[in-house]
Amino acid sequence: MTHLCLDDLERAARTVLPGEIWDFLAGGSGAEASLEANRAALERIFVIPRMLRDLTGATGEAEVLGRPAAVPMAVAPVAYQRLFHPEGELAAARAARDAGVPYTICTLSSVPLEEIAAVGGRPWFQLYWLRDEKRSLELVRRAEDAGCEAIVFTVDVPWMGRRLRDLRNGFALPDSVTAANFDAGDAAHRRTRGQSAVAEHTAREFAPATWESVEAVRAHTDLPVVLKGILAVEDATRAVDAGVGGIVVSNHGGRQLDSAVPGIEMLGEIAAALSGWDGEVLLDGGIRSGGDILKALALGASAVLVGRPVMWGLAADGEDGARQSLELLAVEFRNALGLAGCDSVSAARRLGTRVPGR
């Protein structure tokens, strides 16, 4: 089936997924204020297009972490993708490969990271800090050995946010879906009324990351380390001092602190504070169209991460659906880029923006 926009894919995914799995994918923490704010903040921003520009040879291609990408975006890390389709991460990774954008393998992937990386394309590996530092660093080494190009170190999950949809559903993983990258026992499968088995599992396995954790990861790999979950300017500047290769401005899709500011609200300030830095500033959270990608670039991002929309496509039609979600974003982005009078991604970063009423 042909879908004309990501909203179409969202409706299709909601139709086919069981209610509790849809809630696991779509939900946020607490009252979901930050989840809703991500979209509201993006919708308030408008770009100021330029006219009478030469668009001969216009292209949406970009460099992301030093290597070419067809569009300035990457697939965000999403846990347990076999919840959404039997092929899970393998199908999504193939779609990203074919779309010419990086794919981020999650620590909590439901397929071993080596199998996902073997799909090809541009695999990155997302790291959660585990209670056993040795196991964390083993994951980093496995990712490097498997051919991953970067370590995306998620730093905003000392433990999982309180997600009421999962608590109400007593959510637990089905037996067919496991944390494939390490032996996690059966904690994530043990259904208890009023509890999230996934949250119980992560509370057992995860530890709060620190700046010392960042240094340990950097010392353990030659890959660029990207810190995901940065919102404060002070944390962004400290990340630069720590020698990382990039940061992802993100409130974890509204799934951690419910009242955390949307990343797009902090993006401009952080990008300005890091002006002249040779690392990259990416944005995650609420991207739902190519126009949203254009807004992020105009506010200083080098690229964006996209998570839920790719999972909508995966749920709706497997690999073909995931590919279609990425193709829609690419088509919309190139259209928005040209209509804004930009012949390149670098030109988009020179656009002005306005928030009406401010």
SSE diagram, text form:
Layout: H1 6-16, H2 19-26, H3 33-44, E1 46-48, E2 62-64, E3 67-69, E4 73-75, H4 88-99, E5 103-105, H5 113-117, E6 123-127, H6 133-145, E7 151-154, H7 164-169, H8 197-205, H9 211-220, E8 225-230, H10 233-241, E9 246-249, H11 263-273, E10 280-284, H12 290-298, E11 303-306, H13 308-339, H14 345-348, E12 352-354
Parallel strand pairs: 4-11, 5-6, 6-7, 7-8, 8-9, 9-10, 10-11
Antiparallel strand pairs: 1-12, 2-3
Overview of the structural elements:
The chain has 14 helices and twelve strands. The chain has helices at residues 6-16, 19-26, 33-44, 88-99, 113-117, 133-145, 164-169, 197-205, 211-220, 233-241, 263-273, 290-298, 308-339, 345-348; strands at residues 46-48, 62-64, 67-69, 73-75, 103-105, 123-127, 151-154, 225-230, 246-249, 280-284, 303-306, 352-354. It is globular. The N and C termini lie far apart (42 Å). 54% of the residues are buried.
Shape: globular
Helix/strand class = alpha/beta
Q: Can you summarize the main beta sheet?
A: 8 strands, parallel
Task: Using the CA coordinates, give the radius of gyration.
Answer: 19 Å
Sequence of strands across the biggest β-sheet: 4-11-10-9-8-7-6-5
Series of H and E elements: HHHEEEEHEHEHEHHHEHEHEHEHHE
Descriptive labels:
12 strands, two-stranded antiparallel ribbon, 14 helices, alpha/beta
Brief write-up:
Helices cover 42% and strands 13% of the residues. It is of the alpha/beta class.
